[in-house]
Every structure is written in C-alpha cells, then in structure tokens.
C-alpha cells in the first residue's frame, strides 16, 4: 500500500501494540522509496475497547462479551482461552485493549499516537452481546469526553513541534 500511496489500517486485537509500530515504518519507507508524498499518507489503528463513567464499570461491562468473542475467534485460529487476568493485563498501558473511563482511554490513545503517528483511531466497542444502553453511553463518552481531550493534546503537541522547528 505504501508504494501506491494507499491508506493502511492496522487491526490490533491482542498482544502489545508497540510490536506493530514497525509495520507503519515499513509502509512509510515503501512510500518514500516510491516517491509518494508523505503528507498524503493515511494511517489508522483499529482496536477493541470500551468507555464507561468509571474504569471499573468499563472493565466489568466489557469483559464478558469481549472474552466470549475472543474465545470463539481463538478456537478458530488456534489461540488458547482468555481469562479475566489476561483481560486486565491487556487493558493496561502496554496492552491492546482501550478500556476505562474517558480520561484513561484518552491518555492511552494519546500515548499510542506518539508511537504510531496515526491519522485515525477506530475504537470497536460493540464486541459480542453488549447492552444497547451501555454501547450508547460509551459512544456518548467517546464523542463528548475522549475526543476533545485527544484533539486538544494532539493540537497542543503539533503546535509545540511547529514552534521548535
């Protein structure tokens, strides 16, 4: 995709996201070698996660449906079953799950943007059988709380970079 200047999206549903960062480096290098305009390249990271008013509520509401889906996928792909300890580790700072209150999720998005320098971020919250009201609240928090925090942080860091250049 890089050589053709096409957009690329990484779906990171497990493991440590930092291990995927070199894939964007390869993409950008292929684009550079092919003479593509680096400013026009579009990159996205797509992850599983959930937002609730508290981190505890987000984890408790998301664990069951997410575990059911990952265990089903795991059986199809040869992965071992997941459990709550694995889930809790995965929602930590180095894990692939973006689960928590708005501030925690925004902080993790910002940290991963520094790693990937992605243009887009997609949070897949409707994993498994989640109650509609919980999904709607998660979407509301994403738009009204998380997005403004992320936009402000990325705008501020972009302006700092311009000022020091």
- Can you tell me the CATH topology? TIM Barrel
Describe the sheet with the most strands.
4 strands, parallel
- Mind telling me which CATH architecture this is? Alpha-Beta Barrel
Average pLDDT, all residues: 94
Distance between the termini: 30 Å
Word description of this protein:
The protein is an alpha/beta fold. It has one domain (8-164): Alpha-Beta Barrel (TIM Barrel). It has five helices and four strands, in the order E-H-E-H-H-E-H-E-H. The protein has helices at residues 21-33, 55-77, 84-90, 102-116, 132-164, and strands at residues 8-12, 43-51, 98-100, 120-124. Strands 1, 2, 3 and 4 form a four-stranded parallel beta sheet that branches. Helix 1 links the parallel strand 1 (8-12) and strand 2 (43-51). It is globular. It starts with 7 loop residues before the first strand and ends with a helix. The mean pLDDT is 94.
Task: Give a quick rundown of the structure.
The chain is α/β, with parallel strands linked by helices and 165 residues long. The protein has helices spanning 21-33, 55-77, 84-90, 102-116, 132-164, and strands spanning 8-12, 43-51, 98-100, 120-124.
